[in-house]
Amino acid sequence: MSPKYLEHFLTAAVSTFDIMLGCALTPREAIVKKEIQPEYEVSGVIGLSSKKAKGTVVLSLCHEAALSVSEALLGERPTDIDGDVVDAVGELTNIIAGAAKAKMEHLSLDISLPTTIVGKQHVMGFPHKAVSVCVPYESPWGDVAIEVALVETLDPNAPDEEEKKEFDFDRLFAKGATPTYESMMKQSAESAGAIR
């Protein structure tokens, strides 16, 4: 992923938090993520796609930051994570992704509707061959992170190499490959302590 693309998302996040919410974000060191778990309890997720690129952007917030975002957007502080908080985090993710998308017009990206996931150690999937870069931030409201994975197609008119090959089930289910629904649910349950 081009550092310039990452910069568009980070700039959009910092300016949105500052201008729209009145909350300053202080960046910490960027991390190339190898695991598929977001940093915090509440995550807004947006998919990005076109013939030229595909990817995902994730806005993760700690519990306190999610409540504060909702309060700043809606004018009333929720007592806990509820539907209003879920909607507020989804909308904030949509604003950040839309602002970044506007800076990458040459990619002709479409953005999906936002999805918000709540719960500790939830599992995310990213597009095949996409490298996920996470930038954690400190804020007066608590920890926030922006995670971006975007992969460009070298020639948008060339057939996809994956499409030309016969489907390889061994690669799909190999250790370290894309997790199956069952393996993600098992990992999530084990992380929550439900399975021993």
Describe the protein's topology:
Layout: H1 3-21, E1 26-27, E2 31-33, E3 42-49, E4 53-61, H2 63-74, H3 83-102, E5 110-111, E6 115-118, E7 132-138, E8 144-152, H4 161-164, H5 169-173, H6 181-192
Antiparallel strand pairs: 1-7, 2-7, 3-4, 3-5, 3-6, 4-8, 7-8
Brief write-up:
The protein has 196 residues and is an alpha+beta fold.
Number of domains: 2
Number of H- or I-type helical stretches? 6
The topology string of helices and strands comes to HEEEEHHEEEEHHH
At the fold tier of CATH, the topology name of the largest domain is Chemotaxis protein chec
Q: What CATH architecture of the largest domain do you see?
A: 3-Layer(aba) Sandwich
Report, as a whole number of angstroms, the end-to-end distance.
38 Å
Radius of gyration: 17 Å
Question: Would you identify the CATH H-level superfamily of the largest domain?
Answer: CheC-like
Residue-averaged pLDDT: 79
What characteristic shape results from the CA principal axes? Answer: globular
Number of strands: 8
* CATH class category of the largest domain: Alpha Beta
Strand content: 15-25%
Poorly predicted sequence stretches spanning 5 or more consecutive residues: 158-181
What fraction, in percent, of the residue positions are helical?
25-40%
Major sheet description: 8 strands, antiparallel
Question: Which quaternary structure do these chains form?
Answer: single chain
Structure description:
By secondary structure, this protein is α+β, with helices and mostly antiparallel strands. It has two domains: 3-156, 3-Layer(aba) Sandwich (Chemotaxis protein chec), CATH 3.40.1550.10; 166-196, no CATH class. Helices cover 37% and strands 22% of the residues. The protein is built from six helices and eight strands; from the N terminus they run H-E-E-E-E-H-H-E-E-E-E-H-H-H. It has helices at residues 3-21, 63-74, 83-102, 161-164, 169-173, 181-192, and strands at 26-27, 31-33, 42-49, 53-61, 110-111, 115-118, 132-138, 144-152. Strands 1, 2, 3, 4, 5, 6, 7 and 8 form an eight-stranded antiparallel β-sheet that branches. Helix 1 packs across helix 3 and helix 2 crosses helix 3. The longest helix has 20 residues, at 83-102. The radius of gyration is 17 Å and the shape is globular. It starts with a helix and ends with a helix. The model is unreliable at 158-181 (pLDDT under 50).
